[in-house]
Amino acid sequence: MSELIGVVGAGTMGNGIAQVAARAGYDVVMRDVREAFLERGLNAVHKSLQRDVDKERLTVDEKQTIVNRIKITTDLELLKDASVIVEAITEDTTIKSNLFKDLDQIVNQSAILASNTSSISITKLAAATNRPDKVIGMHFMNPVPVMKLVEVIRGLATSEETYQQVRTLSEKL
């Protein structure tokens, strides 16, 4: 599997999303605004996977393979080839809208932009883009690696194709 998943935000939710995507076999680019946040996020992934090694649910080699699928960066441009980008940043409408506007300019037109928000309107976030049909909510439950549940939320303009692609991805994760 060579599909690239982008995750914006390396906090609790972001690193959990990156971990489950990498564990499902996807290459992942996890982006945050500071190197320190990225290091903390990658450390959390290591610790979480180590618990599975300790419980013999994963081998050391399998853990390393999963970790190696996650690339970290502070550069938004490195998300340009992602087919799906999941945003997991602070719950602030303006900050999220600005991020969606920036991502809309960077990523392929076919890319899906998803938000992990549980409270901000997907329709409002989609309005910041030129692809409202490709904007959707993917609300993961915390802790992401343990909770096998993703709430998929359509905006007013979210296409059926986008919904089906995200539903299928959620099931794989």
Notes on the structure:
The chain is α/β, with parallel strands linked by helices and 173 residues long. The chain has one domain (4-172): NAD(P)-binding Rossmann-like Domain (Rossmann fold, 3-Layer(aba) Sandwich), CATH 3.40.50.720. The chain contains six helices and seven strands, in the order βαβααββαβαββα. It has helices at residues 12-23, 35-54, 60-68, 93-106, 122-126, 160-172; strands at residues 4-8, 27-31, 70-73, 84-87, 112-115, 135-140, 150-154. A seven-stranded mixed β-sheet has the order 3-2-1-4-5-6-7, sandwiched between helices.
| CATH fold field value | Rossmann fold
CATH superfamily: NAD(P)-binding Rossmann-like Domain
Classified by CATH, the class is: Alpha Beta
Could you give the order of the helices and strands? EHEHHEEHEHEEH
Domain count: the total is: 1
Structural class: alpha/beta
Helix count?
6
Looking at the structure, what is the overall shape?
globular
Tally the beta strands: 7
Output mean pLDDT: 97
Provide key terms for this protein.
7-stranded mixed sheet; 7 strands; 173 residues; alpha/beta; 42% helix; Rossmann fold; single chain
Please outline what is shown here.
With 173 residues, the protein is of the alpha/beta class. 42% of the residues lie in helices and 19% in strands. It has 6 helices and 7 strands, in the order βαβααββαβαββα.
